[in-house]
Every structure is written in C-alpha cells, then in structure tokens.
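Q: Could you fold this chain for me?
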Amino acid sequence: MARVALLSNPRSTGNQSLLPRIRAFCAEHPDIFHYEVEHVDQIGEALKTIARVKPKVLVINGGDGTVQAALTELHHGAHFGLHRPPVAVLPNGKTNLIALDLGAVGDPLAALQKVLIMAKTDLAPHIVARELIALSDGSAGNRTVMGMFLGGAGLADTILFCRHKIYPLGLPNGVSHALTALALVASLLLGIKARFLPPQASPVEVRVLRQGVLSGRFALLLVTTLEKMLLSSSMGDDVNRHGSLKMLAVEQRPMPLLRAMWAGVAGKLGRTQMTGVHVESGDEIRIEGKNSSVILDGELFEAEMGRPIILTPTAPVSFLRFAA
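A: Sure. Below is the predicted structure, expressed as structure tokens.
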C-alpha cells in the first residue's frame, strides 16, 4: 500500500518547471504512487487506478481547474468505496485559492515532503472537513460539477480579463494580479472606460434560498465553502447561520467597493451592515442573467434568463490541512 498517491497534471502552468523535480522526488520515495494525466478527461481512469494501491492520502498537483475536475470525479465515482482518502492540494497553478485555504503555500515540493511526513503519522489532527459547491443548470440527467470557489458578475469578467489579456504577457503571477487589480480600480473607481480595461458587468439576479433576491450590476459576486475569501480570512460568525454556501455581492459602484475592500482589510467583512455590500449564506443559490458568466475553480459556465445556474452544498469531504 502506498502512503501517498500523487495525481499530476503536466499541462498545469506551474508544472512546466516543477514536474521534473516532482518526478525525481517520487523516484527516490517508493511510498509515493505518482500518476500523470494529459487531460482532465483521464482523471476518472487515474482515480480508478490509484484506488487499487489504497493510499493514505490523495495529493493533487495542478491548478484549481485540475482540483475541481478531481473533486467532481471523486464525488460521482465510487472508486474508493467507503474508504476515500483525505485530499491534499499542492500550491500550484495561477490562483491556488483551495491550496491557500488549506494552508499550503510556498514551494509545492516542500509541501509534498510535508504530506509524506504527515502520512507516516496519525492524520486525524490534520484533517478538516469542507463542503463542496455542486453546480448544475437544473436539467435532469446533467452531471453536476463540483468546486469550492465561484466568481460571477464583474469578478468573472475580471478573471477572464486577466486570463485573456494579462497572462499572455508572460509576467509573474503576482505582477499579473497586481495589473489586473489596477485595471479594475481604473474601470470601477475612476470610471475610465476603454477596450483594454475589464468590461462593465451585465445585470444579474441572485436568489438565496429563504434569504431573498438581489438584482443589479455587481463588481464582485462570489460564492464559496472555503474559510478564506478574497478580501478577508473570515466572513464573520453570522454568515454561517443559514447554510454552507457563503456569498459576497458588491454593487458596481465606487463606494460599495471601497467599503468592502476596507472591511476586508480590517477583518470586518460580514460582521457589520454596509450599503451596497451583501453578505449572505444559504443551502441553495440561483444565479440568472443574460449572458452572465460564472467561473467555478477555473471553469467557465454561462447563466441565461430562464435557465439559472443552481448552487447547492455537498456532504463534507475530508481534506489535509498543512497549517493550523
């Protein structure tokens, strides 16, 4: 039995330089069963093979999109039966939101070394439970997609702007994200409109079960089951009162965006009422709008009028946390 199973996506941006080191490390440690996929469509077969070696931990080495595809396959497939191993995520890819929430930062190889050390001990103190977001369009027979972080409205447009306009410049991730933030400030706070800046968000309607309806243009719309949000490490105790899905919606006006940014920096997001800043939670969220994009852990989906995107939480999944 392998202590650690490592699932790698060589096409992940971070793996272009990392993977040779990972391969060399795995060759020196027979306790690691390393499986590489060339495409996310191969993840189902990969997990079927990995299940045969009965690993103590399943480690995912790729970007958020790779993690999302693996979590979706883990949810729908029964490869591990009742003995599904906890999932660890290496800090790889462009955004690393899931890895960050689990305390995985810095060198991915160092994180893998830490997982191997933990796998030789009792894992119980390191395991945390997280619900996943199940995304569907409500159609019967369609396969739901699993993830942990969804961005919509202006946030989705900004992510797409960064992906298509900034990343191709070949700059470091930190610089790319800083340029994207400056473009967002110029567009929203200064009111500058230009083809090289993120577009204005389209109107969207958001229904939170038993909490009401929000409609309008939103600079930020995000839904997550992670503990760490974009603007704050905590959303306050009240946000968990009505359900597992935590939502932040910031109206597309300068003052609400400034209020949300300040509250996030001060750790007060979700703790006090702010005009134009909506913090809600629930067990079902519906997003509807004409050609309104949402991005779930890197994968793009489109909401339409009369065909909303429906988000619900799953049962808790065990993850390996790197830091308390």
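A (continued): The first helix runs from residue 15 to 28.
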